[in-house]
Amino acid sequence: MAIEIPTALPDSLLSRLSDFLESQVGLHFPKERWRDLERGIAAASREAGYAEAEAYIRWLLTAPLTRTQIEGLASHLTVGETYFFREKRSLDILEQQILPELLRTRAQTEKHLRIWSAGCCTGEEPYSIAMLLDRLIPDLEKWNVTILATDINPQFLRKAAHGVYGAWSFRDTPGWLRERYFTRRQDGRFEIQPRIQRMVTFSYLNLAEDAYPSLVNSTNAMDVILCRNVLMYFAQERARKVVDKLHRSLVDGGWLITSPVETSIVLFSAFTAVEFPGAFLYRKMAATAPRTVANRHPVPWYDGEAAAATPAPAEPSAAAAFGVARSAFAPEVLHEAGDELATEAKDADSREHDEREMPRRKARACADEGRLAEAIGWCEMAIAADKLNPAHYYLLAVICQEQGQSETAERSLGRALYLEPDFALAHFALGNLCLSGGRRGEARRHFGNALNLLRACPADALLPEADGLSAGRLVEIIASAQASLPRAHKELAV
Ligand SMILES: C[S@@+](CC[C@H](N)C(=O)[O-])C[C@H]1O[C@@H](n2cnc3c(N)ncnc32)[C@H](O)[C@@H]1O
Question: Alpha-carbon distance 345 to 133, whole Å?
Answer without folding.
Answer: 57
